[in-house]
Amino acid sequence: MRTVPNSLHDEAASRLREQIFAGSLPPGSFLDEAALCERLAISRTPLREALKVLVAEGLLRHEPRRGCFVAEVTERDLDEIFPVIALLEGRAAHEATCRAGDADVAALEVLHLRLQQCAAEGRITDYYVANHAIHEAFITLAGNRWLAQVIGDLRKILRLARLQQLHAPGRLQQSLAEHLAVFDALKRRDSDAAESAMRTHLLHQREALRDVARNQQSRLNP
């Protein structure tokens, strides 16, 4: 079968999404449609369709008679999102534990060894990469596309805040211990324990972010 190319508005949405996550379109910034059309080499119609997609995802906000702005994540948003994503990722860990086979456990073992090495060497950027891979692995193993979709949507919002919770004192080792607790529960095929441990892990991320905010000027709205 031939691959069907992305539509113009899908491609434009993808490029704008990448620019938002990279910070080249920072929170609160206004999106000038004329300038974007020129930069992306597209007409107004596909651009406006792309903007509608990003508004629906929560990455942009639309103000009548003013246009679109990059969404800003507040401390209240984080307080509301983290308990929800903790429940969802906890459920993903539960379902992953029920479905994981020996080969899956072996693959997760490799990821967790990588995570441990990054923590031991203090390589925070690489730790984030390994951490993300582990969370994605649990979601994939859960095999629940609805769960994956909702978690993915919430993660997009959290990426707007450009969170750095591992910079909180002691958080790196705490995060590692939490991950190992989830993995240990999965290896024991204890789905309830895996769910509880993953939920705790996400809630502790929120607590760590409060510590970071207290010790440096927050990048979030008050």
TrEMBL record:
Signal peptide: none
The entry's keywords: DNA-binding, Transcription, Transcription regulation
Residue ranges of domain HTH gntR-type in the record: 6-73
Single GO term (MF): DNA-binding transcription factor activity
Keyword match Phosphoprotein: no
This protein's record includes keyword DNA-binding: yes
Protein name: GntR family transcriptional regulator
Source species of the chain: Acidovorax carolinensis
